[in-house]
Design a protein that fits this description.
Length: about 130
């Protein structure tokens, strides 16, 4: 009887490990999608559907792996992209468009909140 119980626990343990690994690989696909489509909007159902999850399955897996909600991740990805562009670009408008921000005030607010600097600071550093 103990052997049977041990086999059941081993089987369940293997199934959880398999599910976690598959979930991590699929979430990498979602992250890549966000990066590749940074200028667009992200609907949670669309993101969940990419790896074939329901919204209910997707949200906790994403949070567990990435440690934030998908919306927060997308916003941070936009801010990182804008910062990178500002370090190379000649105008704030370039960063605004390429990173998918709707207007300059949102770009300025989010960059300042994340890095403590304004977009204009990055432009001035180039000159």
């Amino acid at each position: 009887m103990l052997q049977t119980v041990g086999q059941v626990f081993e089987t369940l343990s293997d199934a959880r490990t398999e599910e976690r690994v598959v979930g991590e690989r699929e979430l990498v696909e979602v992250r890549a999608y966000i990066q590749d489509n940074i200028q667009g909007t992200f609907d949670i159902l669309t993101l969940a559907d990419l790896p074939g999850f329901t919204k209910r399955q997707f949200m906790p897996r994403f949070r567990k792996k990435i440690h934030m909600a998908p919306y927060q991740y997308a916003m941070q990805a936009r801010v990182r992209r804008a910062r990178d562009i500002l370090q190379d670009a000649t105008s704030i408008a370039d960063a605004l468009f390429e990173a998918g921000f709707s207007d300059q005030s949102h770009l300025t607010r989010d960059i300042r909140a994340t890095y403590g600097l304004t977009p204009a600071w990055y432009i001035r550093q180039k000159t």
